[in-house]
Amino acid sequence: MYYIMKEQEPHNLVSGHFGNGILIWIEGTNNSVAHISPNREITWYNKVLTNEEKEYIKHLALTDDRNISASQDEKVFKNRPKDLVD
C-alpha cells in the first residue's frame, strides 16, 4: 500500500508511504534521498541536496498529517504534526 504526493514538492522530489513512514525520492529514478520514520525522525540517504530540498523534507517531517492511503483513515505518523500541537 502506498500513497504518493507531488503537490508543493520542490523540483523533482516525490514522497510516498510504503508502510513505514514517508520515503522521499527523485522523480523518475530509484534514488531515495531521505526517509521520515513514523516517529518523524529523518534518515538522510543523499547528502547532495539543495537547502530548499532539505528544508522541505524537514518541514514535511514536522507538519505532514497524511493518511496511509486515500481510502484509509489511519495516519502515517504516530504523533500529531507540530503545527497542530502548538
Structural summary, described in words:
The chain has helices at about 50-65, 80-85; strands spanning about 5, 15, 20-25, 30-35, 40-45, 65-70, 70-75. With about 90 residues, the chain is α+β, with helices and mostly antiparallel strands. The protein has one domain (about 5-50, about 65-85). A five-stranded antiparallel β-sheet has the order 1-2-3-4-5, with helices on one face. The protein is globular.
Question: What is this structure, in a nutshell?
Answer:
This protein has two helices and seven strands. By secondary structure, the chain is an alpha+beta fold.
The residue-averaged pLDDT reads: 80
Beta fraction of the residues?
A: 25-35%
Shape: globular
Strand arrangement, largest sheet?
1-2-3-4-5
The radius of gyration over CA amounts to 12 Å
Output the structural class: alpha+beta
The SSE order reads: EEEEEHEEH
Strand tally is: 7
How much helix, percentage-wise, in residues?
A: 10-25%
Count the DSSP helices. Answer: 2
Biggest beta sheet summary: 5 strands, antiparallel
Number of domains: 1
Low-confidence stretches: none
Distance between the termini: 31 Å
Salient structural properties:
alpha+beta; 86 residues; 20% helix; 7 strands
Q: Layout of SSEs?
A:
Layout: E1 3-5, E2 13-17, E3 22-26, E4 32-36, E5 42-44, H1 51-63, E6 67-69, E7 72-75, H2 82-85
